[in-house]
TrEMBL record:
Residues 213-238 are annotated as: Disordered. GO terms for biological process: methylation. CDD domains: AdoMet_MTases. The gene is ycgJ. InterPro entries: Methyltransf_11 (IPR013216), SAM-dependent_MTases_sf (IPR029063), Thiol_S-MT (IPR052356). This is Putative methyltransferase YcgJ. Its EC number is 2.1.1.-. Residues 221-238 have a biased composition (Low complexity). It comes from Poriferisphaera corsica.
Length: 238
């Protein structure tokens, strides 16, 4: 385990070590189809490098094309053991794993073409700091794809998410994290974000260092919203 972890990261690492043995059969069953959706939004080209922050048990790894290089990073050694098993069982030779703290990722600036962050930004102690790090690690033409639950902009639902947050913190993540809090002090542009169904609890958010849209964005999923600027994201109620 990386040294000098703060209390939140240390607690999370130990908690997810416990989760590791049954994660795929519980929470993993809820998010599997969404992970596949999220990976598709990267649209990687052959030879590109992808960083998967919070790779967990490696459920996303089989969805990456084999003509790319994928590095999966997680703080939990227990989760990484499960991910390593998937790499071996599925012959995912294009994938490798690193144990690291998302608050201090052990990579040089612009090391990756794309970054994906699944179910991690509401786990870390400083979500905005994680995105600022990701912004430095990605190349200017790349994408950052986030799959996560964010606090609802609906005042009633958002209130309940805030009330229930102490319980969710005990099992490892925040239920009242608004998307705009994650984007504080960030220069990233929101290309689009959406839910795979109207009443889904999770969103897929696609960000980029530039406001350059891929022609395929015209056909991006529309169930939540598309091609929004950062200032157009509806604020959540705390």
């Amino acid at each position: 385990m990386p040294k000098k972890l703060n209390m939140k990261e240390r607690y999370s690492a130990k908690l997810y070590d416990l989760w590791a043995s049954f994660y795929d059969h519980t929470f993993g069953q809820l998010v599997h189809s969404r992970q596949k959706h999220a990976v598709k939004q990267i649209r990687p080209k052959p030879g590109e490098f992808i960083l998967d922050i919070g790779v967990g048990t490696g459920m996303t790894l089989p969805h990456y094309p084999k003509n790319c290089t994928v590095v999966g990073m997680d703080l939990s050694g227990g989760m990484l053991e499960k991910a390593a098993e998937k790499i071996q069982e599925n012959n995912l030779t294009h994938c490798s794993l690193v144990q690291g703290d998302a608050m201090f990722p052990p990579f040089a600036p612009q090391s990756f073409d794309h970054i994906i962050i699944t179910h991690t930004i509401s786990v870390v102690s400083e979500p905005a700091k994680l995105l600022r790090w990701a912004e430095t690690l990605i190349k200017p033409t790349g994408r950052i794809v986030i799959l996560n639950h964010f606090q609802s902009a609906n005042p009633f639902i958002g209130w309940w998410e805030h009330i229930l947050n102490p319980f969710f913190l005990k099992i490892g993540w925040r239920s009242d994290l608004p998307l705009d809090e994650c984007l504080e002090d960030s220069k990233l542009h929101t290309l689009y974000h959406y839910k795979i169904s109207l009443f889904d609890f999770w969103q897929i958010v696609v960000l980029s260092p530039t406001n350059r849209h891929d022609p395929e964005d015209e056909h991006a999923p529309q169930s939540q919203s598309s091609a929004l600027s950062d200032s157009q994201i509806s604020p959540s109620i705390n």
